[in-house]
Design brief:
By secondary structure, the protein is α+β, with helices and mostly antiparallel strands. The protein has a domain of about 120 residues: Rieske Iron-sulfur Protein. The chain is built from three helices and eleven strands. The strands form two sheets. Strands 1, 2, 3, 4, 9, 10 and 11 form a seven-stranded antiparallel beta sheet that branches. A hairpin with a 6-residue loop joins strand 6 and strand 7. Bound molecules: FE2/S2 (inorganic) cluster. FE2/S2 (inorganic) cluster binds next to loops. The site of FE2/S2 (inorganic) cluster has 12 residues, from loops.
């Protein structure tokens, strides 16, 4: 009988020896027991955890998208409500500060009589009070600088000794009498008196018209000889 040849365990030159197993089980492998399923613990979502961050996605995936839309519509509704209330409050506050046009006073002191040379027209108060002050031998009178045609502001032309309206050419004498152009009547004079401190006191809200005889009013001319 031929001898059976056993596989040789001797290392063969050039062929690495099979590595021995690092370790062997110390004991015979016991039949694996199925691990007892631990009772599921309720998990609590922590702030900032992945569970919290992914919750809207889960809701969306679970078909709870209507809650998200409802929240959005609720917030939009509140925003519109507060905008409306804010607008109403602002409107109410606006009523507490009415638009008032602060115009300069119609009464002003125009300095002392000695400040005005005889025979001259002072244009010093035109810009602020639209008024000329004229000094003659007998005293003072003040003229309101508003053309009696359509209301433009005439200019005093010292070289020509007259008031001239730039709009349509009306002319007025130094006494305010209309003598050329379309102006239908003289310029109006305003009240001029002396204040307690001796200054000229002008009130442009009180006017005097020549054609109605008002220039003879004591307050239309200040005697100061
Ligand atoms: S407004 Fe002065 S002339 Fe017409």
């Amino acid at each position: 009988m031929a001898e059976e040849t056993k596989p040789s365990t001797a290392p063969v030159e050039g062929v690495p020896a099979p590595a021995e197993k690092a370790h062997k089980p110390a004991a015979a492998a016991a039949p694996a027991k199925p691990a007892e399923a631990a009772p599921a613990k309720p998990t609590v979502a922590k702030a900032g955890s992945k569970q919290t961050l992914t919750q809207p996605l889960q809701e969306k995936e679970s078909g709870n998208i209507w809650m998200t839309r409802r929240n959005f519509l609720s917030r939009a509704g509140w925003a519109a409500f507060f905008s409306f209330v804010g607008t109403m409050l602002l409107g109410s506050l606006r009523f507490m500060f009415p638009r008032v046009l602060f115009e300069p006073s119609t009464v002003f002191k125009a300095g002392f009589p000695g400040d005005y040379p005889i025979g001259a027209v002072s244009t010093r108060w035109i810009k602020d009070y639209r008024t000329w002050i004229v000094r003659n031998e007998q005293g003072f009178y003040a003229i309101f600088a508003q053309c009696t045609h359509l209301g433009c502001t005439p200019r005093w032309l010292d070289a020509e000794g007259k008031f001239k309206c730039p709009c349509h050419g009306s002319g007025f004498t130094m006494e305010a009498i209309n003598f050329e152009g379309p102006a239908p009547r003289p310029l109006e004079r305003v009240q001029i008196t002396l204040a307690e401190d001796g200054q000229l006191l002008i009130d442009t809200s009180i006017r005097f018209r020549e054609e109605t005889g008002q220039w003879s009013n004591p307050n239309a001319f200040l005697n100061y000889a």
